[in-house]
Design a protein that fits this description.
By secondary structure, this protein is of the alpha/beta class. It has 5 helices and 5 strands, in the order αββααβαββα.
């Protein structure tokens, strides 16, 4: 299933949280990392946030989603984040999708699709894989133009 099929009209809160994720992605870019930002929200409250940090931390797992999930789990003293939504500027990869399923998130909202490694419908559909014991609602395309522009600009400047 293509992520655009999961596209829904942007709610005001979805736009607000995606703007926060975009601001975090700018922090990643300023640090020389691929500009991806993520926030975890539950009951309208921010419980975790992060941006890509694998280069600076020498940690291949330090994707924005993983950093945000770790902070949310620490804040709530629980690795299960039931009822939470993850907002991320780029479609999660397979590693991040696995962590999302294990954390039992209710929903993932992303901006730009990842046609190379997307695991929320572009290449894989791990967030709704029948073999897994949890399914995650996926909504895509929130502030997609801004998310794509940020990524394109970063990679163009590197060439």
């Amino acid at each position: 299933m293509c992520p655009s099929e999961n596209s829904t009209p942007e709610s005001a809160s979805d736009v607000e949280w995606m703007r926060r994720a975009l601001a975090l992605a700018r922090q990643a870019e300023q640090a020389g990392e691929v500009p991806v930002g993520a926030v975890v929200v539950r009951d309208g409250e921010l419980i975790g946030e992060g941006w890509n940090r694998p280069i600076g931390t020498h940690d291949p797992t330090a994707h924005a989603e993983i950093v945000a999930l770790r902070k949310a789990a620490e804040l709530t003293s629980n690795y299960r984040l039931t009822g939470a939504t993850l907002y991320v500027t780029l479609e999660p990869c397979p590693m991040c999708a696995g962590a999302i399923v294990h954390a039992r998130l209710a929903r993932v909202v992303f901006g730009a699709a990842d046609p190379l490694a997307g695991a929320a419908g572009s290449v894989f559909n791990l967030l709704n894989a029948p073999a897994l014991n949890h399914r995650v609602q996926v909504d895509s395309g929130v502030l997609v133009d801004l998310c794509q522009q940020q990524l394109r600009g970063f990679f163009q400047s590197r060439r």
